[in-house]
Design brief:
By secondary structure, the protein is of the alpha+beta class. The chain contains four helices and five strands, in the order βααβββαβα.
């Protein structure tokens, strides 16, 4: 990465900002239609979710979503919900820049622990996180519950 490959990173604040980031997030969540995305963004923002956008040559090339949380186990934690870099810009250090930005932002806000997870089989993501100094410290479990009326 050269100095010319430096991202301009800014916080998405308006509906228009979130709309502009949708095509990037769609690369990670291809099942996410615009209506569902808009609904989830509305709720997530109300509960503390923040999205930061990476811009290069006036193009949005990446996004990172974070949330702060206070829990009994670790205290004040920043959770990285996702890091996505546009396919055409991967391998240029933009994912690392987004992660470093989130780390600095967490420290500025008094948080000194970041957590994240990846889906099984996401070797590129795991490599990025390990390269950024993250270590595996547990397992992530989930269980899909039935909705009313489902069998």
């Amino acid at each position: 990465m050269s100095e010319n490959d430096k991202l301009k990173i800014w916080e998405a604040r308006s509906d228009s900002d979130y709309h502009s980031a949708y095509p990037i997030l769609l690369q990670l969540f291809p099942h996410l239609d615009m209506q569902t995305y808009a609904q989830r963004v509305f709720v997530a923002r109300a509960t503390g979710y923040r999205m930061f956008v990476g811009e290069y040559d006036d193009d949005i090339v990446g996004v990172i979503g974070i949330m702060h949380n206070h829990n009994i186990h670790d205290g004040f934690v920043t959770y990285i919900e996702h890091v996505v870099v546009d396919e055409g810009y991967r391998g240029r250090g933009f994912g690392s820049q987004l992660i470093e930005f989130a780390e600095h932002r967490a420290q500025e806000e008094g948080c000194y622990l970041i957590e994240l997870d990846t889906d099984l089989g996401e070797e590129r993501a795991e490599l990025l996180y390990k390269k950024s100094g993250y270590s595996v410290c547990g397992h992530y479990f989930h269980k899909k519950l039935k909705r009313d009326g489902e069998e």
